[in-house]
Amino acid sequence: MMNRQADCDSSTMRQKLKGDLHRVADRMNQTLSTFDHDSVCLLGQFAEIRAEIKQIEVLASSFYLDCYLSPFTEKFAELTASVQHLSDRRYGALIVIEREVPLEPIIHSGVAVDARVTHALLESLFIPGAPLHDGAVLIRGNQIVSAGNVLPLSQAIAHERKIG
Predict the structure, then answer these.
(1) Nearest alpha-carbon partner for 79 in 25, 126, 131, 149
(2) Residues 41-58: pLDDT tens digits?
(3) Model confidence over 95-143: pLDDT tens digits?
(4) Transmembrane stretches, by residue range (predicted)?
(5) 131 in helix, strand or coil?
(6) What is the spatial distance between Cα 150 and Cα 111, in angstroms, rounded to a whole number?
(7) Could you give the CA distance from residue 33 to residue 89 in angstroms, rounded to a whole number?
(8) How many CB atoms lie within 10 A of CB 149?
(9) Cα-only R_g, the chain
(10) 146: which strand partners?
């Protein structure tokens, strides 16, 4: 795979995030200064601030996801869009990106897909009720290799943790 890690200079993104956070802080201070006025709808302002913070979160998570995936697939933008769309709909998804070690000997194979990664195809595989939505999707390079895969269980023991 190509090595695009050098393209992941975060200085521009950090500056943008810093500016966005300052704007949200200013907005919060403005809301605080109007707090005692009865004519101000605080719930509306809170909703707007929450939406701004959500956009900042999407920007940061997309950037880091792209940087992490870019050495392993050229379809990192498609994957990022899919993850965001699935998250917005509150759909779960197990997506496994194969790196240097072949994963087929480790996982219990599902259904062969052998198709180029597109956000539409990837999202359709995880729609609740779809035949393959309960398993993991295996991606190698720019291809969806298979879907409905069963991943191995961890051998680690969870002490004093609630799981599930």
Answers:
(1) 126
(2) 888 889 999 999 998 988
(3) 999 998 989 888 998 999 999 999 999 999 999 999 988 999 999 999 9
(4) none
(5) coil
(6) 11
(7) 35
(8) 21
(9) 21
(10) 112, 138
At residue 65, what is the residue type? L
**Token output for 95:** 């997506």
Indicate the pairing of strand 94-98 with strand 136-140: parallel
0.90 exceeded by the pTM? no
Displacement of CA 3 from its chain's centroid (Å): 21
Let me know if 129 is exposed, middle or buried by CB neighbors in 10 A (0-12, 13-18, 19+): exposed
Contact 121, 115 (CB under 8 A): yes
Q: Does residue 6 register a pLDDT over 50?
A: no
β-partners of residue 108 are: 150
Query: By three-state DSSP, how is residue 86 classified?
Result: helix
Any bridge partners for residue 136, and if so which? 94, 149
